Amino acid sequence: MHDINKDIYAVSIHKAQGLEYDSVKVIIPNSNSEKITHGIFYTAITRAKKRLKIYWSAETMDKIVKSFSADETKQRSLEIVRSKLGI
Fold first, then answer.
1. Greatest CA span in the chain, whole angstroms?
2. What secondary structure letter does DSSP report for 14?
3. Which residues lie below 8 Å from residue 76, measured CB to CB, with a gap of 6+?
């Protein structure tokens, strides 16, 4: 059950730098998938202290995962996503 009296915030990934939240939801529309750099993605997923939910299409997820898989230093982001999302 959701507490309707609980505050909900929407902030850009850039504004969220340096902050942490118990629950984070990241929305990546297909039209913006090319704009998601490793730095932006890493910042977004590491804001979550307890819960992370990423809303993206299978196609967008595939593009991002493939682009990060090619670079060993970027694979840490994929490890974080897999552990937080249980995949």
1. 44
2. H
3. 42
Q: Report the alpha-carbon distance of residue 60 to residue 33 in Å, rounded.
A: 6
Q: Report the C-alpha gap between 27 and 60 in whole angstroms.
A: 11
Q: Could you give the CA distance from residue 16 to residue 12 in angstroms, rounded to a whole number?
A: 6
| 17-36 core/surface letters (b: 16 or more CB in 10 A; e: else) | eeeeeeebebebeeeebeeb
Identity (one letter) of the amino acid at 48? A
Domain ranges of the chain: 14-85
pLDDT above 90 for 27: yes
- Bridge partners (DSSP) of residue 24 are 52
Q: Please, where are the H alpha helices in the chain?
A: 13-16, 38-45, 58-69, 75-85
Residues above pLDDT 90, as percent of the chain: 28
